[in-house]
Design brief:
The structure is a homodimer.
Chain A lengths: L6 E2 L2 H6 L6 H8 L10 E3 L4 H14 L2 E5 L19 E5 L6 E5 L4 E5 L4 H9 L3 E2 L12 H6 L7 H4 L2 H4 E8 L2 E5 L12 H4 L8 E8 L1 E2 L3 E10 L1 H13 L6 E5 L1 H10 L5 H10 L5 E10 L1 H17 L3 E4 H9 L3 H11 L2 E11 H19 L3 E6 L6 E11 L5 H16 L16 H23 L12
Parallel strand pairs in A: 2-4, 3-4
Antiparallel strand pairs in A: 1-2, 5-6, 6-10, 7-11, 8-9, 8-10, 12-14, 12-15, 13-14, 13-17, 16-18, 17-18
Protein name (chains A, B): Alkyldihydroxyacetonephosphate synthase
InterPro entries (chains A, B): Alkyl-DHAP_Synthase, FAD-bd_oxidored_4_C, FAD-bd_PCMH, FAD-bd_PCMH-like_sf, FAD-bd_PCMH_sub2, FAD-linked_Oxase-like_C, Oxid_FAD_bind_N, Vanillyl_alc_oxidase_C-sub2
Family (chains A, B): Belongs to the FAD-binding oxidoreductase/transferase type 4 family.
């Protein structure tokens, strides 16, 4: 039904859809003897109707289906697990690549699930619009993936998390199509859009997403500040968040991450900058990136408020170069990992979020857990998403790779971090659950929560073909 | 277990928990021969643990449970239906009246479910805080009811809808306690808080709600504007919403509602005002109420932006008197109905929301449906909640009561309005589903959506004791 040329069974095609981009995924891809599941075939439907037809056939023949977008999951979300099925396909949505419609009056655009970040911006740009959703996975990740994983972009303070942008979703399920979202807000029972968003391919294959869009911003202004230490930085960000003065991008590095920036950022005159900051009482700086996007009037107005509050919080302005260098390097992180891996480094990130009164304890506990597990390690942390009631914490870990058991080395460290997170914060602020976080979900949503998700799944997917082994 | 004095079986107590506040409820209460279900007993537990114990007993004895808060439902949400149960109790949560905790750093307060609006503000006010949730039902409705029905307050543009305020919920269910909400945002699967919010007592009895709170505003400023007609008014509100310049309260009346305000508002010098507006090109005014709350600095800043945009949209300032008179009369609507009922008037409200490109067609269709059903009728409409992608529409209907069949008269008109809404907007923006809107839910969330809700209910409430006959 999709055409023979859109069913791929060669090894290269199947391997390309077998893993995501976690450190362990990269290790597996580099290791000749690695053992990981690979889909039996890759199927590339052309649109929502073909997705539904493929699902119907998979129900008939009891074939597992792993929806595949950009393949950027770092939690095992696209692992080709087959559960109790004898075969499994990767359902690659790359051909669902259209801008379906634009409602300029309502500021809503409908995009197909396979549209990647840059293409979404290009298609919307033709209408003078933007989505403004720029996570680090932006270059490869897709609209459907953003919705399936409750993604949060780097400018979430301004544009919102992805779920804040979604006005409607269209899903293909083993029980037929399911469409949700008829109004900007509703009291017609529970918000089932919020059940579809974050369902990670287990409750249906998202084929189209209706999204709130905005005029493309004529002005983008990014700047850097330095705060005297973590506590001052965290309090400055909390002050902004609780006074509605956050910049669209607001990103605070801790002292360790700032030191690495100072060491590696070629655009900064480091010695002069250290002297400049020290003269202003900032000897252990925490860098803060702030960025505004919008009309000149709007950016000026909001920048004035943010700046006024930052100065009152003791922030010292570093200037545009720091902001711009962050903006231009914002997608480089994942690409740098290959070079580090070549040099025998274990490098990975993990993230969480908590209410403000738990943020410091959570950061301390996760750092301690990682260090206890790994021994000598660099553990850096930043806040990239702030809210009135709390913030995200994003950790980057580097340590010498244990070449005798590199997988076990990281699995133990990750488990220690997850144990530290449980009870203080969420097991994931924007990476999702996948396989890696599934053991910790019950502690967060309760055994009843897990049972409710399973009941929802059994309803829309009675034979359990959708993304076996993920989420619950 | 709750003490004999907290189990009421007298007629007055049972009748007082038998209905909400819809027009049909008021008719039933006035009619000597009216036939409507009444709970067999009223049970008043003292706290979350007692709620759980009562549920456990009701499971054992297969007794239906209707959670009861302020009793302000206008959609039959507290009707004492018993489904397949031989007995049913009203579980009155009035004794769950405590402020449990305040986390000032995270700006989170935990309130028990039975706390009424004014008491919530008083308890929080002792800590210098406010919730800012002021729906028309504020004086009687409860925290648990706000959560159970996805309430939206009159200042939702500033403070958010109730679901935006909820960081966590604690529910008693027939399967035990269920707690949700560990972080300000999460990608740990679907947001199950959004399944609990709007569950209308069918998925559990909400016993505590964790809420984002804000400092009590030192300044409140309310003003009135007039726009030249509905289209100009709607476009002015859309402009504010899409430029993040909404006042905390933003409320646009259509020409008909404005005419009634002009006729009834004793605080306005009507003749002079009409002359003043006509001289400025506004011969068929639509009143717009705008109100800001916050610090003097914040109110001044945001008021400047709103005002600048309103003037560009052709709005003519009417002044503070109009804003303040609305603010002081904001809860009077429901109380005025008794007087109108005495005079043989059929008076009721209904509401919906839609994306901007559907707003006018929806308003026209609902007005036409009501007028076609009722014959001569006054149908007024206002926008009280605006979003980037759309707005709510709230209708007030007055017509001569058909004394031979007053119930049928309104049931037919309401059904016609609901049919007009279906397909263009949501069946409820903030009144919820209850009994009255249940027939229209499937058209909005799909048969799969209804099945998923039923599956969730079967999971947490296998014997179906919770609020039989509501929602689904």
């Amino acid at each position: 039904m999709v055409g023979a040329e859109n069913v791929l069974v060669d090894d290269a095609a199947r391997l390309a859809r077998a893993t995501g981009l976690s450190y362990l995924d990269l290790l597996r891809r580099r290791s000749a003897g690695a053992d990981f599941p690979v889909p039996d075939a890759v199927v590339l439907p052309a649109g929502p109707d073909e997705v539904q037809e493929v699902l119907d056939v998979c129900v008939t023949h009891d074939v597992g289906v792993v929806p595949f977008g950009g393949g950027t999951s770092v939690v095992g979300g696209v692992a080709a697990l087959r559960g109790d099925k004898s075969s499994v396909i990767a359902l690659d949505l790359v051909r669902l690549d259209a801008l379906v419609s634009v409602d300029a009056e309502s500021r809503i655009a409908v995009l197909q699930a396979g549209v990647r970040g840059p293409e979404a911006e290009r298609l919307l740009g033709e209408h003078g619009l933007t989505l403004g959703h720029i996570p680090q996975s932006f270059e490869r990740a897709t609209i459907g993936g953003f919705a399936a994983t409750r993604s949060a972009g780097q400018a979430s303070s301004g544009y919102g998390r992805f779920e804040d942008m979604v006005t409607g979703v269209r899903l293909a399920t083993p029980r037929g199509e399911w469409k949700l979202g008829v109004a900007p807000a509703s009291a017609a029972g529970p918000d089932l859009r919020q059940l579809a968003i974050g369902s990670e391919g287990t409750l249906g294959v998202i084929t189209e997403v209706s999204l709130r869009v905005r005029p493309a911003p004529p002005v983008r202004r990014y700047e850097g500040y330095a705060l005297p230490g973590w506590e001052a930085g965290r309090e400055a960000v909390r002050d902004l968040a609780q006074h509605h003065a956050l910049a669209d991008v607001t990103r605070l590095s801790d002292v360790d991450e700032t030191e690495v920036s100072l060491a590696l950022n070629a655009g900064l005159k480091t010695t002069a900058l250290r002297r400049y900051l020290a003269a202003r009482g900032v000897s252990h700086p925490c860098f803060l990136i702030v960025g505004w996007e919008g009309t000149a009037h709007d950016v000026a107005l909001r920048r004035r408020e943010t700046t006024r509050r930052l100065k009152a919080s003791g922030a010292v302005r570093v200037g545009k170069a720091l902001g711009e260098s962050w903006r231009h390097g914002r997608f480089a992180g994942p690409r740098q990992r290959d070079a580090l891996l070549d040099q025998g480094v274990c490098v990975e990130t993990l993230e969480t979020a908590a209410y403000w009164s738990n943020v410091d304890e959570l950061r301390d506990d996760v750092r301690a857990a990682l260090t206890a597990s790994l021994g000598r390690a660099i553990v850096m942390c930043h806040i990239s998403h702030a809210y009135e009631t709390g913030a995200s914490l994003y950790f980057t870990v580097l340590t010498a790779r244990d070449e005798t058991d590199p997988v076990g080395q990281w699995q133990r460290a990750k488990a220690a971090a997850c144990e530290a997170i449980t009870g203080l914060g969420t097991i994931s602020h924007h990476h999702a659950v996948g396989v890696d976080h599934a053991p910790y979900l019950e502690a967060e949503i309760g055994s009843l929560g897990v049972e409710v998700l399973r009941a929802a799944k059994s309803t829309v997917d009675p034979s359990g073909i959708l993304n076996p082994g993920k989420l619950v």
